[in-house]
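New to this. Please check this fold:
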Amino acid sequence: ERVRMISNHVEFSIEDREQRGGIRNDLQMEDYTIIGMIANIKMVKNPDLFLRVAFRICETHARSAFLLIGGGDRIEELKTQVRQRGLGDRIRLLGRVEDVHPFLQALDVLMLTSNSEGKPMSLLEGMSHGLPVVATRVGGIPELIKNNETGIIVPPEDPLKLAQAINELLSCLLYTSPSPR
């Protein structure tokens, strides 16, 4: 009776088309459908799973690109994996960024590959920008996302299901608008 839960709150964002184009231009990804993840790069966020999905999608979707935004001590190791695959032009690890909102505007899909979560701010922020979300079914994520309505929820540690969900969204994005978002 004395405890009350107050959820995180994020104001709805009005997209700035000019800023979206500027970020995409700066990244040299103007003509790509961009899937991104914003997280502190640590094991619980499972950045390795993000990369496995990115590698798989890059094989089948020539106009897809990936951004991993967030700081952590594994960034260089992950960048090495991307370079070894020859995908440095399509998979970017940006490190820590002070203001993620311009990057959220540049994305077409937000993905979160965590093994454990509370109610992640990155999902709330992405949803406030109108981004479709693909995330793992952990922690408070099912409370934030109505599966197949406001996003797609998949089992944790399942690169195949994550890739299928991303493919599904890419198909929708490609067939519903002449240019992404």
